[in-house]
Specification:
four-stranded mixed beta sheet; alpha/beta; D-amino Acid Aminotransferase, Chain A, domain 1; five-stranded mixed beta sheet; single chain; 17% helix; D-amino Acid Aminotransferase, Chain A, domain 2; 2 domains
Length: 201
């Protein structure tokens, strides 16, 4: 039985991206032939001790309606080096709880983080969508493994643009960010392209 996960930012008692998480959850249910998804704002109850500061709300669920909710503190990762990794034709279109193959790629790399490349195109890091600055605008890979909620919000706000980013072109950019539901655009660290190291097959 498939199990899925939504990692939702809880900031001072509020969920800034709850609508985007609900849309992704709905899409998951519909894809697998289940047309009665639960509502996140009905199943999440925030205990008083989590109403201040930043927490990750982890919602794990299956398509039969079994749901668990937990809250954990969150801190942005500090990264120094990134390894380009060729993932062949691997796919991850829905946010499955089981991400072991991605974690194995990270474990076997020589960097703090990986940048995945599929069929010659840059996709994501192990835990976040990527956004690159070309000197004029911020662009995100057009075909990520997973279309993240923060990515969706930034595209809608016209703060970033989609573009096919090929492996051979990555070093033409100046800098990049890793973004996900837990990292706002403003607080996402900027990394230099020179921090990206070598390709691991």
């Amino acid at each position: 039985m498939y199990r899925f996960i939504e990692s939702i930012r809880l900031e001072n008692g509020k969920f800034p991206l709850l609508e985007e998480h609900q849309l992704r959850l709905n899409k998951t249910f519909n894809h697998f032939g289940h047309f009665n998804p639960f509502l996140l704002d009905e199943i999440i109850s925030v205990p008083e001790e989590y109403l201040n500061d930043l927490f990750k709300c982890r919602v794990v669920y299956d398509l039969q309606g079994k749901v668990s909710v937990e809250f954990v503190p969150y801190h942005i990762k500090k990264l120094s080096t990134f390894s380009l990794v060729d993932i062949g034709s691997a796919d991850y279109p829905y946010k499955f709880e089981d991400r072991q193959w991605i974690m194995d790629l990270l474990h076997n790399s020589e960097g703090d983080e990986i940048i995945m490349c599929r069929n010659g195109e840059i996709t994501d890091s192990s835990y976040a969508n990527l956004v690159f600055f070309d000197g004029n605008q911020w662009v995100t890979p057009k075909h990520p493994l997973l279309q993240g909620t923060q990515r969706a919000r930034l595209l809608k706000a016209n703060l970033i643009k989609e573009r096919i980013i090929r492996e051979r072109d990555i070093f033409k950019f100046q800098k990049f960010k890793c973004i996900n539901a837990m990292i706002s655009w403003e607080e996402a660290p900027e990394y230099q392209i020179e921090q990206i190291k070598r390709i691991i097959s």
